[in-house]
Amino acid sequence: MGKIDVVRLARRAVAYEWGMWRSLARWLLRRPYRMAPGAETFGYAGVVQPILGVFIALSTIEIPVLDLILRHTVDWPTVRQVAIGLGVWGVLWMVGLLASLRIHPHVVDDTGLRIRNGVSLDVLIPWSAVTRVEAHYRSLPSSRAVQYDPEDPAVLNLGVGSQTAVDVVLREPLSVRLPKGPSEPVREIRLYADDPKALVTRARRHVPAGASRADG
């Protein structure tokens, strides 16, 4: 890995960390980002929230248990303080991750469909580029948030919890901005939403009549 790649990776890591903590603050203060008039938001954290909740609960319980163990095994207060600090940081980090998913929902407005995944992904598909939107649940081969379909590289999956639920068919191949740079030109983008039928119904206001359908 070259020096430029290391610097770029470090910048992405810092930006991600800062965005996550900022999301946590906004979530706790109940200050969502402003949306354009007429915009509607759609969540996607429902499929991963139970898993994150379990990890947060277990990590919270682990802090006093670890402190009790260290209190009777390590005669060094600094070690205990560092361990507690790391434990608290880990819990807050996971809460911040959940907050980033909740505070950055998908958005449908007059401009287009804005697909998000926390602070790491923000893709805007203009309505002029869309020919059809359908609700269709699919399982993905891996848990990566961004992956091309192994059977058709012209299909881009922006999944959550190893699944997608909405297919967006494009008029012509389109390259979109991804965390690691522009994507390859794709003719279909698939995403996950907790209520795919509602998202498809809302999208029908912006695509040609009869071009979209909610399949379930």
Topology:
Elements: H1 3-29, E1 40-42, H2 49-73, H3 77-103, E2 106-108, E3 112-117, E4 121-126, E5 130-139, E6 147-149, E7 152-158, E8 163-174, E9 177-178, E10 181-182, E11 186-191, H4 196-203, E12 213-214
Parallel strand pairs: 5-12, 7-11
Antiparallel strand pairs: 1-2, 2-3, 3-4, 5-8, 6-7, 8-11, 9-10
Textual characterization of the structure:
The radius of gyration is 20 Å and the shape is elongated. A six-stranded mixed β-sheet has the order 6-7-11-8-5-12, with helices on one face. Strands 1-2-3-4 form a four-stranded antiparallel β-sheet, with helices on one face. Helices cover 40% and strands 29% of the residues. It has four helices and twelve strands; from the N terminus they run αβααββββββββββαβ. The chain has 216 residues and is an alpha+beta fold. The mean pLDDT is 91.
